[in-house]
Amino acid sequence: MAVGAGVPARSWAQSEITNTATITGTIQTERGGALTGVSITALHLPTGIRRVATTDTRGVFTISTLLTGGPYALQISQPGFRAQVINNVFLKADAPASFALVLAPDVVAVGTRRLDRTALESVAPVDVIDMRELALAAPRVDNTQLLNYAVPSFNSVRETSADGADHVDAATLRGLGSDQVLVLVNGKRRHTSALINLLGSRPYGSATTDLNTISSNALDRVEILRDGAAAQYGSDAIAGVINLNLKSDNHGGSVMVNNGIHQSGLGYNTTLSLNKGLKLGSKGFLNVTGEVDYRGYTTSPDYARDLNSWPVYSSIRAREDSFLLANKKTAKDYRQRNGDAIMTNYRAVYNAGVELSEKARFYSFGTYNYRRGQAVAPWVLPSANPADLGTQPGFSLGYQPNINTRIQDGAAVVGLDLKLGRWDLDLSQSIGTNRMRYDLDNTLNPSLGAKSPTSFEAGGLQFTQAVTNATASRLFDNVLAGTNVAFGTEFRNDYFEIVAGDENSWKDYQAGQPGASGGSQGFIGFDPTSAIAGSRQNVAGFLDVEADVLKNWTVGAAARYERYSDFGSALIYKATTRVQATKWLALRAAYNTGFRAPSQHQQLYRQLTLLPTASGTTYSGIYNNQSDIAQVAGISKLTAEKSRNASLGLVLTPTKDLVFTADAYQIDIDDRISLTNEFGAGISPQLDDALDKAETTSVQFFANALNTRTRGLDLVASYNRTLGRGTLHVTAAANFNETTLRSLNVPTLFRGIQTDEIAGNNFIGQRQLSLITTGSPKSKLLASVGYESVKWGVTARYTRFGQVSSYDFNFDGLEEGSYYLVFSAKSVTDLILTYKPVKGLTLAAGAQNLFNVRPDNLLQAAKNGHAPDGFASAADYQAYYLKTYGTPSTTPYDHDILPHHMVQMGANGAFFYLKATYAFGQ
């Protein structure tokens, strides 16, 4: 055992101390083993004097000749274990303070099935985010925003004017799709949202797992595995795995209040969250969290209506001004809301575990989220179709429809951990469901004329997933230097449903108002022909072996076989190795094959849009691959995406305070699923006949169309050191990635349009393809510097979001295609201040995006990029357009009413907040 002084500025001579005190104690592992070499620091807060000790071979430590009184802060740290801080320690001369401490290992649960691997020992890169600290002080409370500013390979933005995507924030990893990352909660598969992202949003054509259904105050930490892991966990884990670990405290709790608002005065956020730990029996726990969260709407300050794009009444200025004057209106009265949707969340989380005996443990956890959201659609204006304005009061001069959602998300898991000799057996059953319903108000079904209601039930979506899992594992400590073997089986059932809306929300009553549009404006309800329900099952078996061949050399191998009821089977594998070359250098590498099963959403989704014509109603929309029209088009049924992932990395720990990791990766994905372009008449006589029979003018399908390659590099560095009366924290991290198209899989019928050199006429549209290849930041850099003492702390964070680019929408199906939009890199600075005035109370205040940085608007992005393919400049394109179509081009689309695409960090600007957390019963 070693004892030493740590503050050179002041000496602490034995002769100067008349009344001294002592701190003693023992430190053990959770299994009761003594911990040697643990560092214990006693910091006397009034003077800043520090005394340090380390535990001996029995886990015992003593710090003597301490000043009486206090308060002291006791800091306990050991590499591989989670640090502890004990505050408000007061000492007496005649009564030594004694502590019996248990350190929990800082192990990870993803990427390995061993129970003793830390993040630095892992054979694959794992980010570990302490949510207790992050949620306590950071500006936001929703998980996507918290992680977006903490992990460089993680990206999430809020959409605007994208229907359902306004209400569910998608998340991506390493620049891949939102459905190519697997989400776990306490190590168990999490269900996805019922929503499938359409309207050209970034996760186009995919379903995402909604991370914001779980309260951040209920989380202990988040582990993000940045490596393919489908062989270990099954479908979706191509880019990696996100594991949300719930709090398991059996005592104490916290109350958190958060308030914030944007510099514009809009987007007021407020949250009230309560967490409480309870004992269940002598060794069990129940941890519960309840939360209410409200977020107000935002809108962009860049609003300047362009009469060539969205006139209220006429593109001729004199007529426009005359109309506004006659009706006592101004252009500001027709301002388009174009930011965050209004959102209210009610969240509840529980996590429980009970020791039934020495060989059996029961566990259960669950979540529930009710969300009420309100987004808006573009205005319905006199300039578009006067017949759509109706005759109801308040609508005849135009209206902005509200697209509202009611989302209910619930999940529960029950399980048993059993000891069978030296084997551990984990049996679990989970079920999760997400139900999304649309309702609209402040809108009309114009074809009903004066009889039209102003609110509608438009139907919706539901996805349910049930998983039965059995996993057996054992550590053979005498085989090589330790070999862990795990195997098991899993059965999963997926169910997806589309529910039709009320008839008024989708039907075209042409006789009621000739020339008027049918269905609720802003969002047409799901019609009965779109309503569908289906389920599928799959069964899997897996084997996972991880061996320490030598004390400093680990190898791993995993294999998995899955059989799906709807498309076939997959056999995949993974191989890993890690070498501790020196005390301060480790090398790691991995190669794996993987797959992502087509989601039930992609298999079954069908949505038709009604188009009134002189001869009757026709349809335009998405047809699933089981439809007759898909068979005529030669669109095959969907099969799994297949991946190959290779990575190579290193871990540097030159000192105990400094850690640096670097990991390079290449991910090849074959048969990647995408929505096709829209196809109308003229491709083939057979397809023309099928379109006529279906009374459909244009169709889209999901197809295994793309073969892509993603290459990237992750860099992470952290430095933590005791300095003065506190701790200095410095972190720097970066992700660089690039996705390229290797080849396209084009059905025979469409090969002609793929090679006809007409930019907007391809099998996969320009925008769809660009969202996959360049729609995520090419780079993302994070840096933070923070200093934390017992009472106060300050942190400055810097985030640089790299360039994002994509083709604009092509709503009119122009053969020349659309503008290529380039959104330049932007940097955001955050400031976080914390203060702890009394025991248990933490106050936080600060700013996110302190300097009010916003992404490029559409007009600037068009200047950064280029005009549609084949035109030397925007001026050339404008001249061509005017000559060809007889009117000025209005592209980029909606550049006046929707000036920002939500591409990197959102367009809301600076956000200021106050947060207070009171921890009780600690």
Description:
It is found in: Cell outer membrane. This protein is mostly beta strands. It has two domains: 101 residues, Immunoglobulins (Immunoglobulin-like, Sandwich); 761 residues, Maltoporin, Chain A. Helix content is 9%, strand content 48%. The N terminus is likely disordered.
Task: Summarize the helices and strands and which ones pair or pack.
Blueprint: E1 3-5, E2 20-29, E3 39-44, E4 49-54, E5 60-67, E6 69-77, E7 84-91, E8 97-103, E9 126-130, H1 131-137, H2 143-148, E10 154-155, E11 172-173, E12 181-185, E13 188-189, E14 219-225, H3 230-233, E15 240-246, E16 253-262, E17 269-280, E18 284-295, H4 317-326, E19 342-357, E20 360-376, E21 402-420, E22 423-441, E23 455-476, E24 483-499, H5 503-506, E25 532-550, E26 553-564, E27 568-582, E28 585-596, H6 600-604, E29 607-613, E30 616-622, H7 628-633, E31 641-655, E32 658-675, H8 685-693, E33 696-700, E34 702-723, E35 726-744, H9 751-754, H10 766-773, E36 779-789, E37 792-801, E38 804-807, E39 820-823, E40 826-835, E41 841-848, H11 858-864, H12 874-885, E42 911-920
Parallel strand pairs: 2-8, 12-15, 30-33
Antiparallel strand pairs: 1-4, 2-5, 3-4, 3-6, 6-7, 9-14, 10-11, 12-13, 14-15, 16-17, 16-42, 17-18, 18-19, 19-20, 20-21, 21-22, 22-23, 23-24, 24-25, 25-26, 26-27, 27-28, 28-31, 29-30, 31-32, 32-34, 34-35, 35-36, 36-37, 37-40, 38-39, 40-41, 41-42
Family: Belongs to the TonB-dependent receptor family.
Protein name: TonB-dependent receptor
Keywords: Cell outer membrane, Membrane, Receptor, TonB box, Transmembrane, Transmembrane beta strand, Transport
